[in-house]
Amino acid sequence: MRFTAAILLLTFGCGIASRGALAQQQPLQPQLSPEAQELLAQLRDIHEPAPVGWWPPAPGWWLLALLLLTCAGAAFLWLRHKRRQRRKNRYRAEAIKLLRGIDIKQARATQDINEILKRVAVTHYGRGVCGNLTGRKWLEFLQTRVAIDCPEEVQKILLEDLYRESGNNISGNQAFLDYAVNWVQRHGQRNANGGNLTAMEAENV
């Protein structure tokens, strides 16, 4: 009995001693002044910055939008110009189609080629300029509107054979037809250097 009481006293004493040692190891919390406590009360929690919105966009996006609008406007103007140019030159394609549909073996082949050529000239230059031209004046008009040589065989047709009712010069009609197609393609056209278009350039108009 006495032995048990001694053990209890020893255990109790060790607990008190350990608590005292811990109390000595832990520093005492400093007492805050009323002013410090008031400042702490005024502090707020740290807030994260708001997410960046998509509007207004950055200057780089404005520049990109301006570039895209410029490209779109340039493309629209180019397409409109090409459409107008194609519509303006539609008569050329129709005339060439009619010329290539002529049978040079027919008796009126020479007159038909000349008639189509005259219609093209009147369409582009006006009836008052070339509508009443015949013979030498008509030939000179054709020669001064394109930078291509008029073959002697074609000159002979325009000056002599055109108004003859008898005879049919097939080789002359073929030369006249080729000259007429070339003239229709190239009349009134200018290339980038200010000169007349070549035949290949005129075909692409």
Structural class: mainly alpha
Specify the overall morphology: rod-shaped
Distance between the termini: 128 Å
Number of DSSP-assigned strands: 0
The percentage helix is 55-70%
Give average pLDDT, whole number: 77
Annotation field: number of helices: 10
User: Uncertain spans, ≥5 residues at pLDDT below 50?
Assistant: 191-205
In short:
The protein has 205 residues and is mainly alpha-helical. Helices cover 66% and strands 0% of the residues. The N and C termini lie far apart (128 Å).
Topology:
Layout: H1 2-25, H2 34-42, H3 59-88, H4 90-100, H5 109-125, H6 127-130, H7 135-145, H8 152-159, H9 170-186, H10 199-203
List keywords for this structure.
205 residues; mainly alpha; 66% helix; rod-shaped; disordered C terminus
Characterise the protein shown here:
The protein is an all-alpha fold and 205 residues long. The protein has a domain at 87-203. It contains ten helices and no strands. It has helices at residues 2-25, 34-42, 59-88, 90-100, 109-125, 127-130, 135-145, 152-159, 170-186, 199-203. Helix 5 (109-125) packs parallel to helix 9. The longest helix has 30 residues, at 59-88. Mean pLDDT is 77; it is low at 191-205.
